Every structure is written in structure tokens, then in C-alpha cells.
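cron nightly-structures :: item 1 of 1
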Amino acid sequence: MRMTIALVACVAALTTSACATYLDDLNRAEVHYKANEHERALALFRVLEPDMDSLSRADQARYAYLRGMNDYRMGDAFRTDARHWLAVAKAIDREQPGSLSAEQKPRLDEALRDLNQDVYGVGVFPEEPEDSGQASSDKPAAKQSDEAQSDSDKAKGGDNTAPSDESKKPAHGDSEP
């Protein structure tokens, strides 16, 4: 009986220390990130990545945010990775609000906006609407121009989308069957 209790205690201690080790690695990586030692931080992030699922959901968001911002600061060669990790951080924070601090959210959004320009082009910022009642200024430019064209046609007294009765009439010299 004592042997079983000792074995359970050893397993519990090892499991707890393993989780603490992952959290310690994340904390060390954050210290390197804040000290602008991005290569050292990246080395720790890469070591920690396979065990990321051992972290709590909030620590996973913190890992993804720090990893993404670290990659973002490392330059052009890491921009794709930065975009990936920042998107992961944003997704976790959406899933579990409060995972990221109020200070981190605007930085994340600004960095993602910059990184998304690489993919979608300058001036295009695809974002999901916060609520279903989206303002007309948030609509894509193509949709706005279609609506503007439609409004302009109505102002002229016609609608170019449907053929008018005039166009259905046969031309002079044509006879109806």
C-alpha cells in the first residue's frame, strides 16, 4: 500500500514539474523577447512548440502572441510565421475572451493588419464584423460601388439591370410574327 502511494506521489510530482518546465520555458522566452534577444526567444519558442498543448489555453494564447510578435520583429524572412502565430493568438482570444491583455490586443491587430497587406494587398483589411449590423462604410469597395451605381441609376429615373419596354419592341421594318 505504501509503495502505491509513493508511486502515485512520484508520478504527480513529475507531471506537475513537467508543466512547470513548459511554463518556465515560456516565461524565459518572454524575458528574451522583452530584452530584444529575438534569436534566443525563437530558440525557446521552437523547443516549446511541440509541447504547446500542455499549456493552459490562456498560456497557449500568450505563447502564440509572443511567438508571432517575436517573428514579426525578426524581419521579412519570418513574416509568414508571424502572421500564422498572431492569427492563432487572435483565434484563441476569440474563443476564450481575456486570454490576451488589453495592451496586447491593439498591437496584435496592428501587426496582423500590416502582415495581411502582404497577402491581400495594400489598403485591404479583411476582418470579421463584430456584430451583424455592419455599417455601410465597412462594406467592401466593390459592393459599395455596385450600390452607388444602382442609386445613381435610380436617380436618373431608370434601372440598367432590367431591360426596358423600349428594348423589347421590334425595330422599324421588323415585323412581329
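cron nightly-structures :: done
The mean pLDDT is 75.
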